[in-house]
From TrEMBL:
Spans traversing the lipid bilayer: none
Record key words, sorted: NAD, Oxidoreductase
CDD domains for this protein: NAD_bind_Leu_Phe_Val_DH (cd01075)
Organism whose genome encodes this protein: Paracoccus nototheniae
Full protein name: Leu/Phe/Val dehydrogenase
A Pfam family: ELFV_dehydrog_N
Length: 348
């Protein structure tokens, strides 16, 4: 199995952008190391049928930068990186493709740790792990990170509710979960158990039917998300869902979800704040999965994982208090915290 790695020009402020190719095994992937200032870069591998290379580069670079922020805020001793594999995860993925991807990761010699993201399961990661020491989120080890992500988002959503509505009690609260995948479905189950009035959407009908019958959820069409009268919006599909237009249409007072890069543009955090919508930064609230993965990288026990997960909600609470006192958006407070951490380490 031979994988070719080609260094592409990394965007300013990024350490490395690599194209990994193994045509015989159908592998074409990008691996981006945004920052290794706080430790080796860590972040999941996504498989997606991108329309073109520019779209994939945009995705992997934004995601890698998000991982630097996420890992810093969760205090994991890890930098930020991400990988994307070109292709449809439902039809194009093969064990050999994942093995070739593992080989590419191994070639990076521990500067990048990979795990699952959209389109990649623990079973897929196991094939990659046959060829690299730097694949985690494996069954029998830390396992699927998604339930940890969902639990972290749920806890933060409660904290956010306390801040916005004056109570963490979710009984009767109208919450829309967009995307019922690994994280979204688990989050929807927790919300249903907590008594929320659930509205759900997905582009795949099977997941919706289950949520309707089992969780009593109301279904809306994927393109009708911003027509719904809701109190909390939980984006758990793909990024870029909050744009200048959709922010104007959003009826929710709180946004808290698992999707990475929910804001199409960072400046929208201010726009949301001005519209009276509290946006909990995605990279702060969705760190449960990487915390789980980090426990495997660092060889830490379950207690460590739980302690870090609990710390996310405490951090969100602190962030919201500081933001309110300073009259700033929570995202501005979080971004500033990350900048301080990175510049402190660089100076050291
Ligand atoms: P997944 O692939 O299991 O689920 C995504 C779901 O969203 C799928 O059911 C898909 O059909 C649906 N979807 C896609 N486009 C949609 C649209 N336009 N409208 C409605 N539904 C749509 O992925 P996941 O692991 O659940 O991750 C969800 C999001 O959370 C991603 O953005 C991912 O990067 C992020 N995230 C995941 C983890 C994790 O632990 N899995 C950790 C951090 C962040």
């Amino acid at each position: 199995m031979s994988v070719t790695l080609t260094d592409l020009t990394a965007p300013e402020g990024y350490e490395r952008l690599v194209l990994a190719e193994a045509p015989r095994h159908g592998l074409r992937a990008l691996i981006c190391l945004h920052s290794t200032v706080l430790g080796p870069a860590a972040g999941g591998c996504r498989m997606w049928a991108y329309d073109n290379d520019d779209q994939a580069i945009h995705d992997v670079t934004r995601l890698a930068r998000g991982m630097t922020h996420k890992n810093a805020m969760a205090d994991l001793g890890l930098g930020g990186g991400k990988a994307v594999i070109f292709g449809d995860a439902r039809t194009d993925k093969t064990p050999d493709m994942m093995r070739a991807f593992g080989e590419a990761v191994e070639t990076l010699a521990g500067t990048y740790w990979t795990a699952e993201d959209v389109g990649i399961s623990p079973a897929d990661m196991a094939f990659a792990a046959e060829r690299t020491r730097f694949a985690v989120g494996l069954s029998g080890a830390s396992g699927d990170p998604s339930p940890w992500t969902a639990e972290g988002v749920f806890r933060c959503l409660r904290v956010g509710s306390g801040h916005v509505f004056g109570t963490e009690d979710l009984t009767g609260r109208r919450v829309l979960v967009q995307g019922l995948g690994h994280v979204g479905l688990s989050l929807a189950e927790k919300l249903a158990k907590a008594g929320a009035r659930l509205i759900v959407t997905d582009i795949h009908a099977a997941a919706l039917k289950d949520a309707m019958t089992r969780l009593g959820a109301v279904v809306c069409a994927p393109d009708a998300v911003f027509d719904q009268q809701i109190e909390i919006f939980a984006p758990c599909a793909l990024g870029g869902i909050l744009t200048e237009r959709t922010v104007g249409e959003l009826s929710a007072s709180l946004v808290c979800g698992a999707a990475n890069n929910q804001l199409a543009d960072d400046a929208l955090a201010l726009r949301l704040e001005a519209a009276g919508i509290t946006y909990l930064p995605d990279y702060v609230v969705n760190a449960g999965g990487i915390i789980s993965v980090a426990s495997e990288i660092h060889g830490k026990p379950d207690a460590w994982r739980l302690e870090r997960l609990t710390a996310i909600a405490a951090r969100v609470s602190q962030m919201l208090t500081t933001a309110r006192e300073a009259g700033q958006a929570p995202a501005a407070i979080a971004d500033e915290m990350v900048r301080t951490m990175l510049s402190g380490r660089r100076a050291a």
